[in-house]
Amino acid sequence: MIPLSSDTETRPTAAMRAAIAGAEVGDEQRGEDPTVNRLQERVAELLGKEAALWFPGGTMCNLVAIKVHTRPADAIISDWMAHIIRAESGGMALSSGVLVEPVVSERGNFGPDDLRQALQRLKTAPPPYGPTPRLVCVEQTHNFAGGTVWSLGQLQALSAAAKTEGLALHMDGARLLNACVATKTAAADFAATVDSLWIDFTKGLGAPIGAVLAGSKAFIAEARRYKHVFGGAMRQAGIAAAGCLYALDHHVERLAEDHDNARRLAEGLVQIPGIHVRTPHPETNMVFFDPAGMGLTNEAFLAKLLDRGVRMGQVRGEIRAVTHLDVSRKDIDTTLAAVAGIA
Ligand SMILES: Cc1ncc(COP(=O)(O)O)c(C=O)c1O
């Protein structure tokens, strides 16, 4: 089976499993796991932040970051297709009691003018009627927009505007390192534009468990408290953190191969009759397309593809293919032949 439904489908390699098996461990909940501590220091340094904190996954990083930045009944401003709105089970409503003021955009990016317009909407009625705007959230890369990248210039402009308005800025950096590799930008340069951010190790980096949130020392101290509140503190988590350290050493630069494969897939799909590719020039590792021109529903297309040994998924009513560590260039050619066969 060629696993193109998500980059979360990666499985740890034999070398990563060996690193995991040899991990030095301690009680993470007490701050005593040496491998987790090493990973946190490494990520803080990579992102140029004062401190970093290990989490079981990225959803909890977003949940905790929003909790630390806001108070109940505050408003956050975010792109309308952000993962925090569309794919985290409404968690921030449950844990932080915040309202979202969405910004509609094509590519998942928005600028200072969009931010100011969102703030205007929140001020429709004079105080005390409207909610208090507190936080801006961005997603790098933007998943549902198509693995699109926020350029450093766009982030710097938004960051300056957020500062002027007295708002904090948080980055869901699930695929930040894809953006770094695609644009040859240092992670710390992107990170310097935001107050808090996290990276995920379970996507293209290929580790089985783990995400790390970074920010100021004061922010991370508060985050640690809420991580405990939400049940995210672990015991001998070094077992998993060793996989993340291995990924940082071996799986970052190779993300460029995933981007090449996504481009090859998109270029091939564009040639196939009946397929409309929304992302004909993928910026990172995702391709979104619509097979309706073949006279097939998404479900029927996915079933036929599965019969031919290729798995893709559906997002936003489109087919999404995501390239990663477990998808080779040859797999892309096999996939294109399978789609052509269906056509
Ligand atoms: C943009 C984005 N944010 C957050 C998450 C959640 O991360 P996790 O699966 O580690 O909880 C994902 C997962 O797919 C994602 O794509």
Account of the protein in words:
This protein is an alpha/beta fold and 343 residues long. It folds into 2 domains: 10-250, Aspartate Aminotransferase, domain 2 (3-Layer(aba) Sandwich); 254-342, Alpha-Beta Complex (Aspartate Aminotransferase, domain 1), CATH 3.90.1150. The protein contains 15 helices and 13 strands. Strands 2-8-7-6-5-3-4 form a 7-stranded mixed sheet, with helices on both faces. Strands 9-10-13-12 form a 4-stranded antiparallel sheet. Helix 2 (34-47) runs parallel beside helix 12 (238-250), helix 3 (58-69) crosses helix 11 and helix 13 packs parallel to helix 15 (329-342). It is globular and about 60 Å long. It starts with a strand and ends with a helix. The model has no long low-confidence stretch (mean pLDDT 98). The structure holds pyridoxal-5'-phosphate.
Looking at this protein, list some descriptive labels.
343 residues, alpha/beta, Aspartate Aminotransferase, domain 2, Aspartate Aminotransferase, domain 1, 2 domains, 7-stranded mixed beta sheet, 4-stranded antiparallel beta sheet, 15 helices, 13 strands, 44% helix, binds pyridoxal-5'-phosphate
What's this model, at a glance?
With 343 residues, the chain is of the alpha/beta class. It has helices spanning 14-21, 34-47, 58-69, 83-86, 91-96, 112-122, 143-146, 152-164, 176-183, 187-191, 217-229, 238-250, 255-270, 298-307, 329-342; strands at residues 2-3, 51-55, 74-79, 99-103, 132-139, 168-173, 196-200, 211-215, 276-277, 286-290, 310-311, 313-315, 318-322. The chain has 15 helices and 13 strands.
